[in-house]
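Q: Sequence in, structure out?
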Amino acid sequence: MKADIGLIGLAVMGENLVLNMESRGFTVAVYNRTVDKVDAFINGRGAGKNIIGTHSPQALADVLKSPRIIMIMVRAGTAVDDTIAQILPYLSPGDIIIDGGNSNYQDTMRRVGELEAKGMLFVGTGVSGGEEGALTGPSIMPGGNEKAWPHIKPILQAIAAKVEDGSPCCDWVGPSGAGHFVKMVHNGIEYGDMQLIAEVYHIMRERLSMSAEEMAEVFDSWNKGELDSYLISITRDILRFKDEDGTPLVDHILDAAGQKGTGKWTGITALDFSVPVTLIVEAVFARCLSAMKEERMHAISLLGKPSSIPFNGDRDSMIMALGKALYAAKIISYAQGFMLMREAAKEYDWNLNYGSIALMWRGGCIIRSRFLGKIKEAFDADPGLSNLVFAPFFAQQIRENENNLRAVVGEAVRAGIPVPALSSALAWIDALRTERLPANLIQAQRDYFGAHTFERTDRPRGEFFHVNWTGHGGSTSAGTYNV
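A: Exactly. Output:
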């Protein structure tokens, strides 16, 4: 019996993807560097199923139909390259390798080229949805060598999550590293979403003195409206989960968040492309600061806790404002993510379909929400949309909800509660619609100390000027360029 697809890497995601594929009618061959895991899986969760266990890369290749399709689910980085090197001697021209891990998109770009030179087809595929999604239907974002798509499409779309009309949350994203780039941005938005929810929770807990159950009730109500999403629903469930002593478990979890790098890559890439994804970057830095637990405790001993003006407002009104502020900030987070994808498309000449990407995120993935349907509608109506907040629906939502965002940020400042993501969202939308920013002074400073030149308001764009500010400098100016 020949297998339809092979999978290397039987960690949580790998195991569940195999079971998902098998449940959709595909025969799957598996291999793991630690072969004991293969036997344990075949005799355990995979018992009695159309799953073939193998103990070597060659054995895996030997049991696959042609062209061979092999999906790699290992740790990003050198482990992917090592796995490719191990399996490559047993492959033939036209065979397909899919990297389904959280690889850096630049590594995927390199691998596509290297393997194409050897006659192989390489695909970098973002997979989102965690353990449950991998088993029941994740969001899948494939990109790379498009010649592979007709061969892998039936499998990937079969195992992907489906939206209401049955459309799969999987479609071809684009060439080179496009698939992993889109997954990276997805994860960056995920960082932003999680931080925004955490800040709202912080205000509820500290400013409004709400119990975990009271907060759970609010998140439950929000999940029935415009904030309906996976992250809101699991926040409700987390707040209701009790420890062994009957108290909320969330209260016993250390406030030091971890991360695996995709949010950081989003920030680095945004800086490289000069795209202001300020909210996402603040969410990454918030995790970094949370991890500095000992330093934070030392700061309290030296500086004391932030001073706080007592809350004298109406609690129900503030809860309503929190929901509206969260919704407005969420729009801004997504707008920043789509800005970054648009800039990458220009840089790498990728023809990204942003409506299709929004559809891929509608189900299965961590940031799945009702909200994404509106994003798809916006890009369907205007495929050339340069900024999500310029779409009529989202512009209206910002206008209707910005005062709530401003009120919530102001309340947090008065209470000494840090809200880097919420305040960054407000600063970004305020800066975006400010006719005259203070960058004119920055340009004057740059010209003063470095002769970097400036443009003038009374001259056409593209003309640059230098002034001898001190009377001691010359007329020579530095070159004009932006990194």
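The chain has a mean pLDDT of 95.
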